[in-house]
């Protein structure tokens, strides 16, 4: 009986701490010939049972990306939206990267 309890407890523990990741969408703008400086930003939020009322974390990723390229032009932007599923909790994450090129006069 004790062995069965240990096996079941181990199975439940492993099920809780592991997750499954799914890639929901990918978007890519045209890649520039000139690629000066690669910048990357990400933002995420957690959901209980998959219920959400907001998507504000996406704006956070965009602002973080813009903040890294104040005096340049962002081009070649790649965005990824992925979800990591745990037992009762979901982590939604947006990852954005692009090239910060100097503005030509």
State the gist of this model.
The protein is an alpha+beta fold and 105 residues long. It has helices spanning 2-17, 56-67; strands spanning 20-28, 37-48, 72-85, 89-102.
Describe the structure.
This protein has 105 residues and is α+β, with helices and mostly antiparallel strands. A four-stranded antiparallel β-sheet has the order 1-3-4-2, covered by helices on one side. The protein is elongated. The chain contains two helices and four strands, in the order H-E-E-H-E-E. 27% of the residues lie in helices and 47% in strands. A hairpin with a 3-residue loop joins strand 3 (72-85) and strand 4 (89-102).
Give the helices and strands, then pairings.
Blueprint: H1 2-17, E1 20-28, E2 37-48, H2 56-67, E3 72-85, E4 89-102
Antiparallel strand pairs: 1-3, 2-4, 3-4
Number of strands: 4
Gap between N and C termini: 78 Å
For the biggest β-sheet, the strand order reads 1-3-4-2
The geometry reads as elongated
In helices, the fraction of residues equals 25-40%
Average of the residue pLDDT scores: 83
Ranges with pLDDT <50 over ≥5 residues? none
Largest sheet: 4 strands, antiparallel
**How many discrete structural domains?**
1
Strand content: over 45%
Structural class: alpha+beta
- Secondary-structure element order, as H and E? HEEHEE
